[in-house]
């Protein structure tokens, strides 16, 4: 009886552990320079908790700060809501934060018009530049009427990146933004401009007269920028910490050009943005990969040139805490030796299932089935399967090749000619004997 009770207890504990793992999907560290942010940004943090984040609040000057223990990550995500920080406490440093990103950690950084030096240095390392402290983004045509300095910009949804997986739909009410401008390194393909300023925007001190053209001007100003590294770690920089505040979430919008809305869309965009940066959305993984010869089921030891090969793949994407089939129409397969010999679209044949049949090229060697899927907003998918392709055996060649028929004809015609010549020659010899 005691043994049965022990088994039941173990099963219950296992079920509880599995369900707890599903509920607490990520450990998130929030660094602040003022714990009042817990109140002013409570709606944003509540959204994270409701989605299963285990949030730990710490001061940026905390002497126990660290992101690693024995080489392992202590947290999955880091939120830095400390705009004016000049130096981190404990073991945390710029190098450690960059190492955290290199190990696959995700970071959300929000600042204001006076960003600290260390945050600016981290941004530069990720391909984003923050404007010098003291400058704010100002727009005298697209401002909210509640701010006489015109530094509170009302940004329409059309200024968001056209990627719903990152920011959600674009047909939304205006967004409220007040803070610094960012400059994206356009030569870096990993950096995305998630929210852009208007062509009428400038980055300038609030109360100073312009004496020369600002360094950041017009639509080149990024308000929010994102980075997805080659190891699929994600980083988001926002020049406005107020973008995530309760005040911005609940405030109405009275745009200078007459547009009005009872509520901004900051909360909606912030939720989509946080889901993306913390890998709750836009994450794809390979569930299965297989290949075999046509009309067979198991992968062969090797392929023979000109045979028909079948390649199959199954993909999943993350929706909340669940993995569901991922369906796309642009998955591409390459059959590569050094360069691709075959490049073809892999048709979708079911929910998340892809299949293609193609002919092996008439070239032997070591090849790879290569899938390298990169799309904006989605984690990159890389799958490589190595196979060998051999030439035909001597017993596998065709007995009669169409291109060799002229040679066959010449050989038999020569034999026939010799036969006729022999008959004529022998007949001539017999007639000669008779005449003699």
Describe the structure.
The structure is a single chain. Helices cover 24% and strands 32% of the residues. The protein has 436 residues and is an alpha+beta fold. Strand 3 (68-69) and strand 4 form a beta hairpin. The longest helix has 31 residues, at 405-435. The chain is elongated.
Largest sheet: 7 strands, mixed
Number of beta strands: 27
- Strands in their spatial order, largest beta sheet: 2-1-5-6-15-14-12
Number of helices: 9
* Alpha-beta classification: alpha+beta
Beta strand %: 25-35%
Task: Give the helix level as a range of percent.
Answer: 10-25%
Radius of gyration: 34 Å
Provide a quick synopsis of the model.
Helices cover 24% and strands 32% of the residues. By secondary structure, it is an alpha+beta fold.
What structural keywords apply?
elongated; five-stranded antiparallel β-sheet; 436 residues; seven-stranded mixed β-sheet; single chain; alpha+beta
What's the layout of helices and strands?
Elements (H helix, E strand, L loop, with lengths): L1 H22 L2 E7 L4 H4 L1 H9 L2 E7 L8 E2 L2 E2 L3 E5 L12 H9 L3 E5 L6 H9 L2 E3 L5 E4 L13 E3 L8 H4 L7 E3 L4 E3 L6 E6 L4 E4 L17 E7 L5 E5 L7 H5 L2 E2 L5 E2 L4 H12 L6 E10 L9 E2 L3 E12 L2 E4 L6 E5 L3 E6 L2 E3 L2 E7 L5 E9 L7 E10 L14 H31 L1
Parallel strand pairs: 1-2, 1-5, 5-6, 6-15, 19-27
Antiparallel strand pairs: 3-4, 7-11, 8-13, 9-10, 12-14, 14-15, 16-17, 18-20, 20-21, 20-25, 22-23, 22-26, 24-25, 26-27
Helix pairs in contact: 3-8
